[in-house]
User: Fold this.
Amino acid sequence: MSRVFMKGCEAIAEAAVRAGCRFFAGYPITPQNEIPEYFARRMPEIGGTFVQGESEVAAVNMVYGAASAGVRSMTSSSSPGIALKSEGISYCASARIPMVYANISRGGPGVGSIQPAQMDYFQATKASGNGGFQMMVFAPATVQEAVTMTYQAFDYADRDRNPVLILADGVIGTMMEPVELPEMKRWEEIAAIQDSKKAWACIGHKLDYAHRSWIEPGHWRTADMQKANEEAAALYESWKVGAEVEEYLLDDAEIVIAAYGISARIAKSAVDLLRKEGMKVGVIRPITVHPFPCAAFEHINYANVRAILDVEMSIPAQFVEDVKTAVKDRCPIETCLCSGGNIMSREAVIEAVRSIYKK
Amino acid sequence: MRTMAKIEVVSERCKSCGYCIKFCPKGVLAAGSKVNSKGYEYVAPVNMDACTGCCMCARICPDGAIEVYK
Assistant:
């Protein structure tokens, strides 16, 4: 294991390379430009392919194609670019094609702002495209976590034959931190992974027309389409037991902060300061925001809790809706929000906690 | 002591996003005095005496518009 100082975007790209990703297609957009930039330099060194598409739509469909041929493939973008890619992502989900993509999200609808935000929560977890498909969505709070998640995302994608999303934001993407990079997969391992996809991928039928693979992003026969949807629904259901979460100082908590990604990291540092003042505050941080770790909200002693404080970089609040579903009206839910590219401040979180105590 | 650093901004590439201004630890860069052909108020160094040549502006620039020479 080597420890290096890397920018979040570059670390995500290197983690993908080490996981065996050998095809990347993308299109530039701030704040994720360093992902394609890194791949452009790195892919030729390892015999992989980098393509800068003529648009986001082109890039995601190139990934759809490469992944259909069994290659571990990835794309990335930021909020408006992900919206453009939603068509290809939906096609991958419908055709059950494993691919990984990262959303280094920014602030607002439309072109938004290019600074960090968490405005794509609903898009990421509820409707990333047409047709009601779902994906595992990982929300890193550190560059190290972004590396680990990206590395594992390819395994989850291959296991499920489904897209996997790394939902980061402009802070994780552009900041530099020391990271330990995972092992580089050897070419034999990568070849074995590709070989394991022979049953469905278009790897070459050797003129055996009867057994050739078909990639179908839909079915004309309604019975077939319903069956495909039922199989997908069973897959989505199977994830629920694997929802990942970090529970921080919950045992005696009087106020529980619910937050994900960079907001949760900022909230945790606020909690450390508040604890020194004797305020009993804890944090629930979903690591997978889909499936949502509802079970963590069962570990709270509601007799003790004054309120849940939802901290997120989104106005209007989005993540709070999943929190509400998990809390089931057992205590009040307050919010501490910022948006538009403004980064959550520790002081704002501390102030929000204080005002709950004053109530 | 002043380092002999030099910052060159390719003004036509700059979209005035302000990342370099925000990330420069010494407040060397500013935008707003001139406009490029696309209508963006491009960034320029305004306080070169403070520049340490750390290249943070060039690293963070999403459009590769900044070069730093030492």
Observations:
- Residues 6-69 of chain B form a domain with the Alpha-Beta Plaits fold (CATH 3.30.70.20).
- Chain B touches chain A at residues 17, 19, 59-60, 62-63 (CB under 8 Å).
- Helices of chain B lie at 19-23, 56-60.
- Strands of chain B lie at 6-9, 29-35, 41-45, 66-69.
